């Protein structure tokens, strides 16, 4: 039995990229493309009639960029799920995109398999942050006692260690292997970190860590 395809709207000011992505998604049966837009203004105009469930949204566009368009779209359509399409160098937009409620982040250079994974993950109600983006976004973890005291929440040494590995894109299994502890222990630490930082997913946690000055871009 074939899974129901997600209805996707493509928003990017580069026609060749947009059409190429559409062709790949449609030819491989990964999504039903319900519309295309070349900027934020056009996106907001066609959104109501499109029936889109998921939007692949470029960040840097003429007339209205992705952050503003995402905020306006999600204000009107709370159930809409937006995946940001970005390039290296767009990191300064991420705070505003996460604040707007974007559910996923993909590099434009991503393989089609990763795009499909992001669409499926976000379509099921989850969030997706490209592993390559995570690795490029996060530099080093600052662990001086003074800086830790200045953060809004107090994390233990082990939690700080796990936070760094989460920000670098490692799964709980990979973190467990790297630290020679059980996955169950990592699961518990991760839950504690999310609780202390009041975050709900990896994307929110990475942005929280950067805002608190605990990781560097």
Q: Please give the alpha-carbon distance between the first and last residues.
A: 44 Å
- Order the strands across the largest sheet as they lie in space: 2-1-3-4-5-6
Rg on CA atoms, Å:
18 Å
**Fraction of residues in β-strands:** 5-15%
Q: Assign a percent range to the helix content.
A: 40-55%
Give a structural overview.
- The protein contains eleven helices and six strands.
- It is elongated.
- α2 (40-50) packs parallel to α3, α8 (157-167) crosses α10 (183-197) and α9 packs across α10 (183-197).
- β5, α5 and β6 form a beta-alpha-beta unit.
- The longest helix is centred in the last third of the chain and has 15 residues, at 183-197.
- With 217 residues, the protein is an alpha/beta fold.
- The chain has a six-stranded parallel sheet with strand order 2-1-3-4-5-6, with helices on both faces.
In short:
With 217 residues, the protein is α/β, with parallel strands linked by helices.
What is the strand and helix layout of this fold?
Elements (H helix, E strand, L loop, with lengths): L6 E5 L3 H13 L4 E6 L2 H11 L3 E5 L7 H11 L4 E6 L7 H7 L3 E4 L4 H12 L4 E2 L1 H7 L7 H6 L6 H11 L4 H8 L3 H15 L4 H10 L6
Parallel strand pairs: 1-2, 1-3, 3-4, 4-5, 5-6
Helix pairs in contact: 2-3, 3-4, 8-10, 9-10
């Amino acid at each position: 039995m074939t899974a129901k395809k997600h209805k996707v709207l493509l928003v990017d000011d580069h026609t060749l990229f947009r059409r190429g992505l559409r062709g790949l998604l449609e030819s491989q049966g990964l999504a039903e493309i319900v519309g295309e837009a070349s900027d934020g203004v056009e996106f907001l105009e066609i959104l109501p009639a499109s029936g889109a469930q998921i939007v692949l949204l470029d960040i840097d566009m003429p007339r209205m960029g992705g952050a503003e368009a995402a905020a306006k779209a999600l204000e009107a359509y709370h159930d809409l799920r937006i995946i940001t399409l970005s390039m290296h160098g767009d990191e300064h937009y991420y705070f505003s995109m996460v604040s707007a409620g974007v559910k996923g982040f993909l590099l434009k250079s991503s393989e089609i398999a990763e795009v499909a994974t992001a669409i499926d993950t976000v379509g099921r109600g989850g969030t997706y942050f490209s592993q390559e983006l995570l690795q490029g976004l996060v530099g080093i973890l600052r662990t001086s006692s003074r800086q830790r005291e200045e953060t809004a929440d107090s994390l233990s040494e082990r939690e700080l260690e796990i936070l760094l590995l989460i920000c670098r894109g490692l799964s709980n299994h990979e973190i467990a292997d790297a630290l020679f502890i059980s996955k169950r222990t990592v699961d518990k630490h991760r839950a504690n970190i999310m609780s202390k930082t009041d975050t709900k997913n990896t994307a929110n946690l990475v942005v929280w860590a950067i805002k608190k000055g605990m990781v560097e871009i």
